[in-house]
Amino acid sequence: MSERTVTFIRSTVPALSRVPGGLRQLVAYRELLGFMTINRLRVRYQSSWLGWAWAVLQPLAFLAFLTVVGSAVGGRSNLGVPYPLFILASLSPWTFFATSLSTAAAGVLSSRSLIAKVYFPREIVPLSFVFAALADLAIATALTMVALVCSGHNIPVTVVQLVPISLILIVYAAAFSLALSIAQIGFRDIAIGLPLLLQGMLFTTPVLYPLNAVPPQWRAIYELNPLALLVEAFRGALIGKQIISAEQLIYAAVVGLILFGAAYFMFKTAEPDMVDEI
Q1: pTM of the predicted model, to two decimals?
Q2: Residue of 183, 193, 36, 165 whose CA lies nearest to 94
């Protein structure tokens, strides 16, 4: 009986070319990314009675919970706006980031049948969850603006800063989503531990409190966390009380690009063996 011939297929793309080459291919498949993003949004609430009303009810319910918790531990805004409005402005970037990670982490595993049938850049799967989560960012931001007007405040001109801040947030969400989706293939416990990790990040990121409320001896450490700077910058742009400097935003952007490049390289390196491992 003759032995079966086993052929191993490996990527011939040089390691240093995986990131720029992969990004060029991702641009070529941009229509598929757009279609998958729209599909994520279409199926999100299609089986529920309230449908897209949940997109408004969820941040409001989370707002009520965080307001109670924050008030119980002595939280306050000290930025000239009511504390619930302060929390609502903080939820816009945080909800986007947390939703991106929690949905994209298991995205590759849940799309195994599609990945096994046809070729396309696999990073489209987790990235489609990130872009779908932009709906949460837009809704929470709109709610904050409505709340500002209803509470007698004007929408500040600093809202134009939301565009570059949001772009940096997308880079971070994409980087962590790519890394987690690959790690989830080898370590299935990530999906179980991720909610706990996000809860810890919620309380160690200035969502319930402003960054300037952190004790001086700890503030330098907090400011090394780019996510803390981005949440503070986003909230400041919405409220009109920006305390984050341009240098800190540039720092956050540079670190975000480095993290994205590393995560994308890791993803493209693992891509050839992805179907077999999931």
Answers
A1: 0.85
A2: 165
